[in-house]
């Protein structure tokens, strides 16, 4: 079962490993990313960053959707990590179980603006976010589980 879907361009890092994972009782971290799945060095570094005893899966966005829709994945407590808004929109379209997304961290890039202290979006991102909100997907901003939820619809 999906416990949290999070957009964070750092993917697996301290906040994920030491706050989100224990707080949610996660036993499987799923990185859904078409580039990382082909990058052996990045896969190795993500594996080193994960907490011990936690399963790490790195799959393309399409393969992540297949995995999440498979009944066998329901026995796991899964944290889904995505590093951009576009892939989150794709995954939502493919995985009906995703009804909420945590916006954790997305660094500034050309043409982007901050909607929170750690999450920057551009025009394309805002369009996808609006589409997700129209579909009834909860979009919230929190760095760590103890932060209060800030709802994205109030920030854009």
CATH architecture: 3-Layer(aba) Sandwich
Number of helices: 5
Subunit arrangement of the protein: single chain
Main sheet strand line-up? 3-2-4-1-5-8-9
Question: How much is the average pLDDT?
Answer: 94
Identify the overall geometry.
Answer: globular
- Poorly predicted regions: none
Cα Rg:
15 Å
CATH C-level category? Alpha Beta
How many structurally independent domains?
1
Structural class: alpha/beta
**Main β-sheet, in a few words?**
7 strands, mixed
- DSSP helix fraction: 25-40%
First-residue to last-residue Cα separation: 30 Å
How are helices and strands ordered from N to C? EHEHEHEHEEEHEE
The CATH homologous superfamily is named Phosphotransferase system, sorbose subfamily IIB component
> Care to count the β-strands?
9
CATH fold name, please?
A: Fructose Permease
Beta-strand percentage?
25-35%
Give an account of the 3D structure.
This protein has 156 residues and is of the alpha/beta class. The chain has one domain (2-154): 3-Layer(aba) Sandwich (Fructose Permease), CATH 3.40.35. It has five helices and nine strands; from the N terminus they run E-H-E-H-E-H-E-H-E-E-E-H-E-E. The chain has helices at residues 14-24, 40-49, 61-69, 85-94, 123-134, and strands spanning 2-8, 28-32, 55-59, 78-82, 100-105, 113-116, 119-121, 138-141, 150-151. Strands 3-2-4-1-5-8-9 form a seven-stranded mixed beta sheet, with helices on both faces. Strand 6 (113-116) and strand 7 (119-121) form a beta hairpin. The termini are far apart.
